[in-house]
Amino acid sequence: MAEKVTLIVGPGHAGLGEALARRFGSQGNTIALLGRNQADLDSLVQVLADDHISAFAVTANLADPATVSAALRQITDKGELQTVIYTATQRTKNKPAELTADILNQSLPSNLIGAITVTNLALPYVKKTGNGVFLYTGSIVAAKPGPSDVEQSIGKAGLHSYVLALNKELSKSGVFAGMVTINTYIRKGKPGHMDPNVIAGAFENLANDRQPAEVQYH
């Protein structure tokens, strides 16, 4: 039987990507980490290996579908792509009145377009499992934008609409698409609801329960 692979896109530095890798890796899944910085990814692979979590890293530019496609081929050579978790995001501090199309286009690949690209290219692989899962990280800023996070808000609002529509489309295919919308800060090492290890539990529960389409995490 082929190994089950969980792909985490954009694990980042806040601790959520690491916590998700531990959660899904502890279930026996091999973890694939996808991002742009090879050194950062390799460092996380080593941290996970120290805790006996099987993981490997692949690089891609979310603004370049060809690199994403190549990364997915590498990933699926390792096993069956069972779960895709999209956690990539980019927050800038450009003010709404300063925003231009060029500025916005710099953040959209992380906050929205990359998620669509990854989903589109990964879906044929995930469908082969018969019961695959796509999970996406939402944010409170989608519904409550502020003047210092307008770009992230635009991207996350679009991602929210995309995921809910995708869930409806895939509902009869055996593949589940859902979102965990985080209504708090993520603070590695801080106990309680801000702890990324606790937040990762909401993703695990959604993957297991496969409903509702969106979970509001507080």
UniProtKB/TrEMBL annotation:
Instruction: Tell me which domain of life the UniProt entry assigns to the organism this sequence originates from.
Output: Bacteria
Name the record gives this protein: Uncharacterized protein
